[in-house]
Amino acid sequence: MKVYKLLHDNNHSGDSEKDGFLLKYDGWNLLPYQLIDPKIPVEKLPSQIHFQANFNVIPKYDYPVTDVGVSVMSVKMYDTLDGIGNVNMDILPVVMLDDTYLGGVQTQNGSIKNDVPRLNSYVVVKVKKFLEGVFDYENSDYKMSRRIEGQIGRIRKIVLRESQIGFPPLFRIAETASTLFISQAAKEALESAGIKGCVYEEIEVS
Fold it and tell me: What three-state secondary structure class fits 167?
């Protein structure tokens, strides 16, 4: 049974290395950490996340590259994953705003102006619970953190233990919370659906 690290295709954007740029709000810098912390309830996050995006590029890709490195994906991509097994993650709606709109996109009270072109076909995923018991401590190559006792620091090589019930389509683990993993079935489903913007790095399974 194979499993993969889900990465972005960073070479497709043309004139920019990013597809979308977060529309900043109070506390925006915490977003990448909040999305990978199961202890933070989704209700503590904004009800919608806005990005300013290149509309010549963004509609062509299902897994866009953003300036804050969060896991934004098209509704089509999420539904494809969820269709092969329950994706045990929360989702937040993402609104892409046309970055060629002249002037500020927000009104004085912070809402988005009505005439700003937008795409509502994206979401961002937030972890509900880490998949436990699959990190292979014996065969992975890592060093423990010097600053936080009992926590893994740098990982040179990840090896996962095969789960008796199989891997879910999309998951994170506590040992490397920033890494998003997908199962072999998920990879095959995304490829069959023609999902664009993904790179799959195979992870050794013991």
Answer: coil
Q: Are β-strands 159-160 and 198-205 bridged in parallel, bridged antiparallel, or unpaired?
A: parallel
Query: At residue 56, what are phi and psi to the nearest 5 degrees?
Result: -80, -20
Q: What pLDDT digit, counting tens, does each position of 112-146 carry?
A: 999 999 999 999 999 999 999 999 999 999 998 88
Distance separating alpha carbons of residues 178 and 24, to the nearest angstrom: 21
Q: What is the C-alpha separation between 87 and 127, in angstroms, rounded?
A: 10
Strand partners, 202: 4
Distance (Å, whole) CA 7 – CA 9: 7
Classify burial at 16, counting beta carbons within 10 Å of its beta carbon; exposed 0-12, middle 13-18, buried 19 or more.
middle
C-alpha distance from residue 99 to each of 104, 158, 166 (Å): 10, 38, 42
The tens digit of pLDDT for each residue in 85-105 reads 889 899 999 999 999 998 889
Please provide residue 22's backbone torsions phi and psi, each rounded to the nearest 5 degrees. Answer: -60, 135
Q: Long-range CB contacts (< 8 A, 24+ apart) of 15-19?
A: 15/54, 16/54, 17/65, 18/65, 18/66, 18/67, 19/53, 19/54, 19/57, 19/58, 19/61, 19/64, 19/65, 19/66
Q: What H or E segment, with its residue span, contains residue 188? A: helix 184-192
pTM, to two decimals: 0.93
DSSP 176: G
